Fold:
Amino acid sequence: MTKQTDYTKREMMAVAAAREIRDGDIVFCGTGISMLAAMAAKHISAPSSVIFFETGAIDSQLEEVPLAVGDSRVMFATCVNGGLADAFATMQNRFTGRQVVGIMGAAQIDIYGNLNSTVIGDYDTPKVRFSGSGGACDVASFVSRTIIFMQHAKRKFVPKLDYLTSPGWIDGPDGRKKAGLPGGGPACVITDMAIMGFDENSRKMYLKGCFEGVNKEDVLENMGFAVDTSRAVPVPPPTDEELAILRDTCDPQRLILG
Structure:
């Protein structure tokens, strides 16, 4: 095991997300740390996973980390170079024996994993207006499960969203069903402090595990709502092998890791 001083928060988050990706998963990811996590997973625990992007590149080999989903490097050695329609058709299909996983981020999240990436404040006169859903609502609505990246702060973890952009568990165990959505839903939230899970019965967020050097009180102090912490366990730090894969194989130029 490595020591706490040997890795950054961003590296911990990428490794934690990579561990959540299962072998055989079909991973729909965006730019930045989500892309890095998907790349790392193929070398750590999910060699048969398939990475695809909304720009239509399906089963990207990703010899080099792209800077964005529109970067031509996402198209290297793919099975298919299609378009937006192909990507979203792939996302909504249930391949036999496989799961489609979406990696997402947002400005706000609530206790049921609903996300806001549209506005902060009133919709018509907002304090901040973001780019909006893009494909985020579709991903949250249709994939088998989502992995969410968030900065751990009270302004991010809020009791009530200023705007619901992408559905999580909506308002509880039957929320998605009542809204006419298929299965799926958020599986976990990975922050710079911890991993949050969602209770199988209530669908409310709970503290699944703390990163090294972080305690339960630290996590709660940086949230706008209370969560169950009784199930929290320490999250193992990155191993030397995981860090080597992340730094030397996935992002040797430090384009995302910095």
